[in-house]
Amino acid sequence: MASHPIVVGNWKMNLNSKQTGELIMSVKKEASKHSSVSVIVAPSFTYLDSVGKILKGSKVQLAGQNMFWESEGAYTGEISAPMLMESGCSHVIIGHSERRKYLRETDHMIHRKMVQALECGLVPIVCIGETFEQRQQGIKDLVVMQQLQAIFGGLIPTEKQNIVIAYEPIWAVGTGQACDPNEARETIQVLKHALIDMYQEHVVQQNFVALYGGSVDHTTITQYVDGDIINGVLVGGASTRLDSMLGMIRAVDT
Ligand code: 13P
């Protein structure tokens, strides 16, 4: 999938209504000056509707931070893909390590969510990454490949179904200790080769893009985004700070 540099801001459970409104207005304005950068924001569920209205007609895209694998029904507290789309979402983050850790999300659940997102027309941003201990044990590549295979097994994307893979080493998320850009690149290559083993190369090129996530900010973003192996970044903390978020958009404009 040919792609502009991508900056995804995952605002997690941060920013109240006023802060969200202020930040989105500035992001919208900055993004309008950088047409070669794809900007995607993922605010809290409760603000999706209002942010979606603000973003109407703008090039900034909206993402849910999670979704459920059924379209409707008795699933208290869950949000469906059609509901996200009604609020204006084009993307949805799936399988974030914080959900795996605190809510025991499994690869199987992530697989079901991804299939549902694709069926409904949302672009899934699928998070994959190893723990610090797994990296220390030298099994990082094995772990990420196993996650990939468990999540993508049985899926054959159609021509129009785009998928974003976000490599987020868990030890780098929210720690200020980012993964070395070359190591991130190598791991993403491992993932892309695993995808090529599952699908044909042209399918991977056509349907997939890859992001790195974990302690990126405006001062480091250009070390990662190379327009080839790493197409963009998935950012938490820095994306909630005005200067950093706008700085990242500016930094990757070519
Ligand atoms: P930080 O940028 O705060 O490390 O978070 C990364 C992340 O989890 C994005 O989804």
UniProtKB/TrEMBL annotation:
Give its E.C. classification number: 5.3.1.1
GO BP: any one term:
glycolytic process
CDD domains from the UniProt entry: TIM
Which InterPro entries does UniProt cross-reference here?
Aldolase_TIM, TIM_sf, TrioseP_Isoase_bac/euk, Triosephosphate_isomerase, Triosephosphate_isomerase_AS
Q: Which GO terms describe its cellular component?
A: cytosol
Q: In the UniProt entry, which residues are flagged as the active site?
A: H96, E168
* Catalytic activity from the UniProt record: D-glyceraldehyde 3-phosphate = dihydroxyacetone phosphate
Q: In which pathway does it act?
A: Carbohydrate biosynthesis; gluconeogenesis; Carbohydrate degradation; glycolysis; D-glyceraldehyde 3-phosphate from glycerone phosphate: step 1/1
Primary role? Involved in the gluconeogenesis. Catalyzes stereospecifically the conversion of dihydroxyacetone phosphate (DHAP) to D-glyceraldehyde-3-phosphate (G3P).
Name the UniProt record assigns to this protein: Triosephosphate isomerase
Q: Which organism is it from?
A: Candidatus Kerfeldbacteria bacterium RIFCSPLOWO2_01_FULL_48_11
Q: Which gene encodes it?
A: tpiA
